[in-house]
Amino acid sequence: MSRVAxxxxxxxxxxxxxxxxxxxxVLPMPFTIDGKEYFEGISLNQKEFYERLAxxxxxxxxxxSPESVMxxxxxxxxxxxxxxxxxxxSGLSGxxxxxxxxxxxxxxxxxxxxxQRISIxxxxxxxxxxxxxxxxxxxxxxxxxxxxxxxxxxxxITVATLKYLKKGGRLTPAVAAIGTLLRIKPVLQIQGERLxxxxxxxxxxxxxxxxxxxxxxxxxxxxGGLDAKDVYLDIAHTNNEEEAVKFKAEVxxxxxxxSVGFVDPLSLSVSCHIGDGSLAIAATRILHD
Length: 289
What we know:
alpha/beta
């Protein structure tokens, strides 16, 4: 039986400490802040990131260097037979395509999974990969299984401010100004490759209801129905843990018989585009391989 190592990046929300507990490796995503490079979870923590964000620092996201990716793979292949690499969605970063190109030099020993997920849905893919490896699946089999179910998840996010959507060019200044005046809170959706606008609300409570209704519809129409209880429900947030914990109770009240798994910070690659104070909910279909 082949020994398979699992690798992901910090966009999964998996910390270095949790990675050690899971027996996996996490590549830290690099950021440039006012011209200086930092690495998520290594030289940049959540608290420091949001402090710099509040100071209107110039923040740019990047991807791991090819050298850092290949060096990690080579290190792991000294101990393991194969590597499964699970990067963030190819639609949200070029790191996936870069990894696929780099893997060509490893004679099939490195399988890069393009399953178009990020944050808590990406974390679920990593957990599935760990279980599949423990069951004796090869790296190629794990890749094929995860890519087969890549679209069986949804994330809905509501933001507390339009400032960062405007800054990132996702809203024009005029639309952002009107939205701020009317206290509009957009609900965004990540499903597959893109971060898109899903709906609009006037209050956070309305936004949360919109997200719960959207998740309910996905469960009923895409994930086997409410009675099947065939999904994981998870919550993420940007520097908003207290409200996220409250939202967890609301989600469990709205879906009797379901329990929320993770309540995680959103990855900083998403956070820098939406700012702090956001809440997100995800549904990921339970993998039956």
